Amino acid sequence: MASSTALSCLAALLLLAAAAAPASAAEETRLRVYWHDVVSGGPNARVVQVAQAPSSNASATGFGTVLVIDDPLTEGPNLTSRLLGRAQGMYISAGKDSLSLLMAMNFVFVDGAYNGSSIAIIGPNQADRAVREMPVVGGTGVFRFARGYCQLRTHWFDAKTGDATVEYKIHLRHD
Ligand SMILES: *[C@@H]1O[C@H](CO)[C@@H](O)[C@H](O)[C@H]1NC(C)=O
Ligand SMILES: *[C@@H]1O[C@H](CO)[C@@H](O)[C@H](O)[C@H]1NC(C)=O
Ligand SMILES: *[C@@H]1O[C@H](CO)[C@@H](O)[C@H](O)[C@H]1NC(C)=O
């Protein structure tokens, strides 16, 4: 009797555990996009500086500068390659002694398999390093409940204009 009670308790616990388990195993997605910071081009620029430190607090790293972006995300490294989405958000020079950006962006997809979905990226970008890593903290559409990270490598940079192309390799787990 005692053991059958114990067994039914165990069965009830197992049922509870099963109910609490996620409905489906997390999906895994790896994708690569090229992020084009279009600083030059006057009215065609896709980056605007909206704030900077007062000149009395100027630093070599531009500490305190805030830029808002609506940068193209393309399939290939060339700006003319297929447009997959937009990187909308901002970056802030957050390092006083070293070049380190705080980036906060949504990658909003407008074409391809992820059209209508987005991912949210927030993290540090130590722009003078060859490889930088930032977390993906969430997503919408096919990327609901997304978590993951991206690795950034500068593909091209024009020191005169500030224009840059950066490869983003993104590794996600999501619903
Ligand atoms: C900014 O500059 C002012 C004036 O020189 C100075 O008093 C202040 O300490 C500076 N602030 C920082 C964070 O360096
Ligand atoms: C990008 O594509 C354009 C047009 O297809 C081409 O003229 C240009 O040379 C390409 N640029 C690079 C860096 O490959
Ligand atoms: C992306 O989705 C929108 C909304 O559903 C649609 O209007 C648009 O045509 C799609 N774009 C492409 C390139 O498929």
Automatic annotation (TrEMBL):
Keyword presence, tRNA processing: no
Compartments it resides in: Secreted, Extracellular space, Apoplast
Chain segments annotated as transmembrane: none
Upper taxonomic lineage: Eukaryota, Viridiplantae, Streptophyta, Embryophyta, Tracheophyta
Keywords for this protein: Apoplast, Secreted, Signal
Signal sequence bounds: 1-25
Subunit structure: Homodimer.
PANTHER family per UniProt: NUCLEOPORIN-RELATED (PTHR21495)
Protein name: Dirigent protein
Protein's job: Dirigent proteins impart stereoselectivity on the phenoxy radical-coupling reaction, yielding optically active lignans from two molecules of coniferyl alcohol in the biosynthesis of lignans, flavonolignans, and alkaloids and thus plays a central role in plant secondary metabolism.
Protein family per UniProt: Belongs to the plant dirigent protein family.
Presence of keyword Secreted: yes
BP GO annotations: phenylpropanoid biosynthetic process
GO cellular component: apoplast
Species annotation: Triticum aestivum (Wheat)
